[in-house]
Backbone:
């Protein structure tokens, strides 16, 4: 059986475009982010350094996001996950760390449009102004009552992830919040 | 509306992004405690009108715990600090004393 995403290709075009981002490889890495061994692991996998607090570093090979003081999210191609996990485990062996494949435990949305900040603001208490949430910074917060993380990749594009089990609900929520005629024009 | 700045991720989060877990700096009573000490540890909590120290968790954000000092009557937030401390930082206590001259000070 081949893998499918929770959203299974869902698409909606209202005030913003909401799209299933497709199969994306996601690895949670927990450990001491200040340690040399974590730096070495990231350098090996993506050729990057550990991102600063709340930042996401992107390369053509993939991205790595700072999720908490001891947690990173490595985003790579879906097919590479098991290979990357084994090399991470090799490098991190012996250190107090955890590497887990969460690719199929999350739903990922690709949002496009000028009104993304307004649409998300309808359901999250996070400050979405450009000063507080600039491009390349990850914000973990909630939409309605569900945990989400989102970050802007450019002025009009945003990636949003949530737990897989609530992916369909978040899709419906986003569709509703981005209905034409409900513009806020704040951000 | 209560906004607290999480010292673990630096986000100023709305109350609804957080979870409050009651009084901070409670000393655990161990296996040798007598009934009174255990009762005190399990059930007895301060309920001050004024300065209060609480444990909070950034539950929808970075998921980490921190401590906060705030006023229970005005909701003024004096500051937040690491949960890995036995007492509030001195600088914070001095700041509160300046703002609330009649405050009796931090007591454990």
Residues:
């Amino acid at each position: 059986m081949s893998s499918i995403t929770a959203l299974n290709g869902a698409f909606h075009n209202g005030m913003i475009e909401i799209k299933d981002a497709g199969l994306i490889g996601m690895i949670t890495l927990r450990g001491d982010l200040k340690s040399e061994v974590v730096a070495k692991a990231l350098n090996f996998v993506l050729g990057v350094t550990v991102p600063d607090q709340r930042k996401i570093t992107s390369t053509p090979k993939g991205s790595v996001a700072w999720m908490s003081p001891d947690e990173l999210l490595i985003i790579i191609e879906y097919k590479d996950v098991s290979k990357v996990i084994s090399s991470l485990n090799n490098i991190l062996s012996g250190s107090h760390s955890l590497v887990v494949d969460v690719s199929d435990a999350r739903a990922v949305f690709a949002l496009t449009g000028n009104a993304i900040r307004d649409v998300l603001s309808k359901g999250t208490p996070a400050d979405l102004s450009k000063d507080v949430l600039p491009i390349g910074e990850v914000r973990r917060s909630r939409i309605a009552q569900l945990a989400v993380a989102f970050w802007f990749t450019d002025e009009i594009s945003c990636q949003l992830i949530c737990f897989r089990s609530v992916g369909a609900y978040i899709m419906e929520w986003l569709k509703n919040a981005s209905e034409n005629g409900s513009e806020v024009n704040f951000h | 509306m209560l906004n607290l700045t999480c010292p673990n991720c630096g986000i100023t989060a709305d109350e609804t992004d957080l979870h409050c877990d009651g009084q901070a700096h409670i000393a655990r009573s161990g296996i040798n405690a007598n009934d009174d000490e255990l009762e005190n540890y399990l059930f007895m909590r301060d309920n001050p009108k004024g300065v209060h120290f609480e444990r909070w968790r950034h539950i929808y954000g970075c998921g980490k715990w921190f401590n906060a000092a705030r006023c229970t009557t005005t909701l003024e937030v004096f500051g937040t600090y690491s949960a890995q401390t036995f007492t509030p930082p001195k600088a914070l206590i001095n700041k509160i004393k300046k703002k609330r001259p009649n405050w009796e000070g931090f007591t454990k």
Residues 2 and 34 of chain A are 38 Å apart (CA to CA). Residues 81-92 of chain A form the longest helix (12 residues). Chain A has two domains: 11-22+105-177, 24-103. Chain A has a mean pLDDT of 96.
